Amino acid sequence: MRSLNSPAGVDLKSIIRVPGATLTPSDRRAIQCNVNFSTNQTAGMSFGSGHTSGARYEWQSACSILAGKVELQQQETADDVTAVNGHAALDLVPVEKRSAAPLRKPLSIADLSPAPTHGEKLRVAYQGVPGAYSEAAAGKAYPGCDAIPCDQFEVAFQTVELWIADRAVLPVENSLGGSIHRNYDLLLRHRLHIVGEVQLPVHHCLLALPGARKEFLRRVISHPQALSQCEHSLTKLGLNVIREAVDDTAGAAEYIAANNLHDTAAIASARAAELYGMQILADGIQDDRSNVTRFVMLAREPIIPRIDRPFKTSIVFAHDEGTSVLFKVLSAFAFRNISLTKIESRPHRHRPIRLADDANGGVAKHFEYIFYVDFEASMADVRAQNALAEVQEFTSFLRVLGSYPMDMTPWSPSSSATGE
Ligand SMILES: O=C(O)C(=O)C[C@]1(C(=O)O)C=C[C@@H](O)C=C1
């Protein structure tokens, strides 16, 4: 049994997922309905998209109750598993018998902590289905955690924001495929804080149904990052296949198994092969042995930065004027001997184009960018504080996405089938 803490610390005996089910937007509606019903303390439960806006409203009002124990009671007649709009299923958990007048428990400091306060496992949202590399990253970041699969990155963010999960673990860059831009955009759009990073060696396998043969394959499906990380190896294997992108690597294996597709292979992990009953046709098909993906851990609250171990800080900023601003910003770090580990630019969504009058009477159109910078210093370090104070002078917008311990765990490259 698990409970769901509302932002006010109200203890909601709540829902658990059916193992393997993936949270979808309609599940979130269902969860909000859940909270809705939790407030009127009747035994009835229902699910449905018709409740969406009302449920949202109820979720907010439930959060503002602030004190006391709000309980869900299992529907007497329903099975444990209730289908939600044909998507994943949710398992309603019965709570202990309630007394006529529920006792109100005062909130304590522990209730306000971002970590679970009731001795339960940390709930960590990731994008994909079990067997995805993101699930492995969640396990590396938080050993023994309860990993919660989500069908989209956006859902993983919202799962933390709605207190369904305590953390999200999301990929931001890969040594072969580069940045995962979607997550950079989402970091800006949402208000979560980066509280850590993990680097995961990614070892890809070519998976097919038992009995399937390489020469009869017509299609290879996987996450676009995985396809790009195996681009050359696939060619070298001499497969006559089309390559198709799907939402995640393990999801590709699950899809092939569910639809009994003998002419389709997936690029995914050995664990996905085990979970979905697939055979490994080729092992270690990433183009480079040192294929590594960097993930960030996100939480509702920032952690307190320290200086007794290596820290990294991630910031995002925008500026009004020309390219010299970028030079000035970067100098603020260089003068203080702070190394930058990453710089990424993304189009400025609200102000995509800047018009500049040219001396000859024409109008130049420049793209406007938002910049993401990672640097090797803690926000508790006075050098970083001074650098950011200076950066603020040149920028129209500046946000610290997080200051967090660097992943210093040693890692060894995976073996590669192609021998590169
Ligand atoms: O599809 C998965 O298994 C994921 O966890 C996603 C993802 C990614 O987004 O980069 C994670 C690690 C690998 O780089 C390939 C795919």
Strand and helix layout:
Layout: E1 3-5, E2 11-13, E3 15-17, H1 25-40, H2 52-63, E4 81-83, E5 89-92, E6 123-127, H3 133-141, E7 146-150, H4 153-161, E8 167-174, E9 178-179, H5 181-189, E10 193-201, E11 205-208, E12 219-222, H6 224-229, H7 231-236, E13 242-245, H8 249-259, E14 264-268, H9 270-276, E15 279-283, E16 292-299, E17 311-318, H10 324-334, E18 340-347, E19 353-357, E20 363-367, E21 369-375, H11 382-394, E22 397-405
Parallel strand pairs: 6-7, 6-8, 12-13, 12-14
Antiparallel strand pairs: 1-2, 3-5, 4-5, 8-9, 8-16, 10-16, 11-14, 11-15, 17-21, 17-22, 18-21, 19-20
The structure holds prephenic acid (PRE).
Any overview of this molecule?
By secondary structure, the protein is of the alpha+beta class. 41% of the residues are buried. The strands form six sheets. Strands 6, 7, 8, 9, 10 and 16 form a six-stranded mixed beta sheet that branches. The protein has helices at residues 25-40, 52-63, 133-141, 153-161, 181-189, 224-229, 231-236, 249-259, 270-276, 324-334, 382-394, and strands spanning 3-5, 11-13, 15-17, 81-83, 89-92, 123-127, 146-150, 167-174, 178-179, 193-201, 205-208, 219-222, 242-245, 264-268, 279-283, 292-299, 311-318, 340-347, 353-357, 363-367, 369-375, 397-405. It folds into three domains: 12-88, no CATH class; 114-201 and 293-405, Periplasmic binding protein-like II (D-Maltodextrin-Binding Protein, domain 2, 3-Layer(aba) Sandwich); 205-285, D-Maltodextrin-Binding Protein, domain 2, CATH 3.40.190. The longest helix is centred in the first third of the chain and has 16 residues, at 25-40. Strand 6, helix 3 (133-141) and strand 7 form a beta-alpha-beta unit. The radius of gyration is 24 Å and the shape is globular. Residues 1-21, 25-100 and 415-420 have low confidence and may be disordered. 26% of the residues lie in helices and 28% in strands. The chain binds prephenic acid (PRE). The site of prephenic acid has 15 residues, from helix 3, strand 8, helix 6 and helix 8.
